[in-house]
Amino acid sequence: MGRKILIIDDEPDAISFMISVLEDSGFDSISSQTGVEGLEMAQKEKPDLILLDLIMPEKGGISMFQELKQDPGLSHIPVVVVSGMSWITGADFRDYFSNGNTGNATDSADAASTGPDGFVEKPIDPPELIKVISDILKA
User: Fold this and answer.
1) Full-model pTM
2) At what angle do helices 35-45 and 61-70 cross, to 10 degrees?
3) Which of 13, 39, 116, 120 has the highest local Cβ count within 10 Å?
């Protein structure tokens, strides 16, 4: 049985694509199309890693990321942001998080340590996705 990855993305095609890529590489996957459901699944399933989209209905990815990192039972789970926001907005979200913009830390050192563990831009490059996950999980 492979490591369990939780995919949280509101786009069914993106979820299907990531499931296929993950399963081809020996990972198990579960998925959610909303942040609210994704948070519940994370609490119930305790995945080894979470792939998190930023723009979703009900609960956006940044808000969900903050909740994950504030929950003592989930804060240890690595989170990889998977988003096309940089392409859409021209803003590089790698810089956003690395500059401490998580909204839940008091100084930049704490903020940087609570940023996502990785980033993958949409459209997703399968080898890049697997490399980021494998590097984080040491798989």
Assistant:
1) 0.83
2) 30
3) 116
Residue 108 has pLDDT above 60, yes or no: no
Taking residue 83's Cβ as centre, other Cβ atoms within 10 Å add up to 22
Cα–Cα distance for residue pair 107/30, rounded to 1 Å? 34
Query: What tens digit of pLDDT does each residue of 9-56 get?
Result: 999 999 999 999 999 999 999 999 999 999 999 999 999 999 999 888
- Model confidence pLDDT, tens digit, residues 67-90: 999 999 999 999 999 988 654 444
Phi and psi based region of residue 46 (left: phi greater than 0; alpha: psi -120 to 50; beta: remaining): left
Structural domain for 15, as ranges: 4-137
Q: Provide the CATH number for the domain around residue 48.
A: 3.40.50.2300
Quick one: angle between helices 126-137 and 12-24, nearest 10? 60
